[in-house]
Write a structure and sequence with these properties.
The structure is a single chain. The chain has 148 residues and is mainly α. It contains 5 helices and no strands.
Length: 148
């Protein structure tokens, strides 16, 4: 386990990009698995930063920085996948009802807009929150073990 924690930052980020791409494909464009992937990536992030023997302030700031970078990867994928669909809003003959998204709002066009906002902006933010949450839970457990 110690060898995994000693991986270079660039190498681990490249591995993260490959895995995030795989999870985007597994979800067929819906980043559900990417959000869930935030938990093990946050756990790994905090363990690797604790392994570097940094102070808690440095660890917290780096966790936020790296979690933002990981969510930006998912944001880029969502912009690539769902960004071109925004042009449907300018098409007066676009059929939003048969697009295949859940029509949770009363109007198909409003449901489409909500779906695009959910996919492009809210999902990467949820991944950021999951990564930060998992890393802080892992830090809490690591520091609890060292205090005992």
């Amino acid at each position: 386990m110690g060898d995994i924690l000693k991986i270079n930052k660039k190498t681990s980020f490249v591995i993260y990009i490959v895995l995030d791409t795989l999870f985007v494909g597994m979800g067929m464009g819906v980043p559900f698995f990417c959000i869930l992937f935030g938990f093990p990536s946050g756990w790994y992030l905090s363990k690797s930063l604790k392994h570097q023997k940094l102070q808690i302030n440095d660890i917290s700031s780096r966790i936020l920085k790296y979690a933002t970078l990981t969510s930006l990867v998912t944001l880029a994928w969502m912009l690539i996948i769902w960004g071109p669909m925004i042009t449907m809003l300018q098409n007066p003959s676009a059929n939003f009802a048969d697009f295949g998204i859940p029509l949770i709002l009363y109007d198909p066009k409003l449901s489409f807009i909500g779906w695009i906002i959910l996919m492009i902006f809210i999902s990467p933010f949820l991944q950021l929150l999951m990564t930060v949450f998992a890393s802080h839970v892992a830090l809490w457990r690591l520091f609890k073990k060292t205090n005992e």
